[in-house]
């Protein structure tokens, strides 16, 4: 993976986690610098994907019709178990660390969304594969909006 800084490639190449930290820190400092004083800044945590049995290009699917249990969530997402979909929690660790000293508020949608494996588009509409990364059914994305409105109402 190649990262750029000030329009030039970072040589020698750096590890993805260092590139992610660099990108997050640059983004946060830019927004803090250009946003008007007192402006409200939210950063939404990562939305999980729910592949089981492999990644999207290795036969993985998300054909469940009901939310999953807490045990299954940990199996799929746990850092300790190196679950199939662990990258969401890894990215969130970097995100929380980068935002710690900023004035951003965090809209954490990851935990509640991990349970909703049933809310992705399926093979309907002529699709040839299951889409386990995008959200389709009403409910989960509406809940994210409700959380944001609750945060804004409390300000």
Automatic annotation (TrEMBL):
From the UniProt record, which GO molecular function terms apply?
A: O-acetyltransferase activity
UniProt domain Trichome birefringence-like C-terminal: residue ranges: 8-150
Instruction: Supply one GO CC term from the record.
Output: Golgi apparatus
Pfam families listed in its UniProt record: PC-Esterase
Q: According to its UniProt record, which protein family does this protein belong to?
A: Belongs to the PC-esterase family. TBL subfamily.
Q: What is this protein called?
A: Trichome birefringence-like C-terminal domain-containing protein
